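haha ok so turns out i had the wrong file open the whole time. this is the CORRECT one, sorry everyone. sequence first:
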Amino acid sequence: MSHFPAYFKFDASNRRVSLDARNPDFYRNPNIAYAAMHAASPTFWWEEEKQWYFTGYDTVNAFLRDRRFGRQITHVMSREELGWAEPRADLADFDRAESKSLLSLEAPEHTRLRTLVNRAFVSRQIEKLRPEITSLCHELIDGFAPDRGTELLSSFAEVIPVTIIAAMMGVPMDMRRQLLDWSHDYVRMYMFGRTAEDEALANKAARDFADYVKTLAKEKRANPQDDLLTLMLSPARDGQFLTEDELVSTAIVLLNAGHEATVHQIGNAVNIILASEHDPKALFADAKSTELTVEESFRISAPVHIFKRWALEDVEVDGVQLRKGDEIGLILAAANLDPGKFSDPLAFKPDRNEGLSLSFGAGIHFCIGAPLARLEMNIALPILFERLPKMRIAEVPVVKDVYHFHGLERLDLEW
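then structure:
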């Protein structure tokens, strides 16, 4: 890459990048910046974020599996040692909901929680949902096909994953809208440049979400059902139970992760396919073609771009001396564009078969919902394009003004 985008400043003498994550030119098409990172230095200090970031595929893949790094740090260092202020009282509900999150724990707590939950997410269990997902896709399309147009996120992409995860968890269908609202508010806490309003909404969502999970759990204890929440209330083979805090944190993670990312992935994939020169009939001609197309959409338009890690001991990586307690950023979406791993990485190549992307992470925190997300995508996309072969983009879609989640505000289609 002979020149960098105007908003991307690189100091080669000390591998420093200056980049404003709130710049629309960046977040609307971050892949351009990611290509610049690979051309400049796949490992760099991000001035605005005041952290080291890593984008090389092999480096990021290794970090995700390296036990010298973790999602948690307070189990090996005190807040005082880390130089942290006391926890904020106004974020107590959010902190409590996050305290036992599968996304944030390390072994042995993580191992125990994941083992309890994983029973419902193994591929053979997920495959049983195929008829239900298929039926739902057709039912939704039946609803808007005669209209000759639709806003796909609200009419299709949002409904499928939230309906399926709610059914799996045993959450009543009339709570779907509320789950979406809580989830949207909750994830504001993870966004770059969050505001005081974002934090207040996230904390309230965490409190309301937790209260609802506790109420629902009480009902399930009194009247057990064949669902994931009831399963989570029952002991594992070794007699281990989830505590109430663990139950709340895990339910929130599953309900959030069970649909938030998949909504954006469906929208991103449809947008990319329609904007490409590829014939959807060929992309979804058979199961193998569909699988490759879906994996390529995960690679080039991942909905979650960054995962953070803490150094649990002093360690040197790629010439960078990291100290115990340092936080680093792994840009999964940039690792997916590493030219050393993927040929012509900025191109959408549906028949690409060069190995898996890192969109679902790796190691002990590999996305527990990956089989479900893949199944939903492999069913929803072929049905959508088969049912609406003349589908086209009606208005240029607007990318959400958030980083590090990547998705569309809306996707208006017509046929």
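Residues 9-414 form a domain with the Cytochrome p450 fold (CATH 1.10.630.10).
again sry for the mixup
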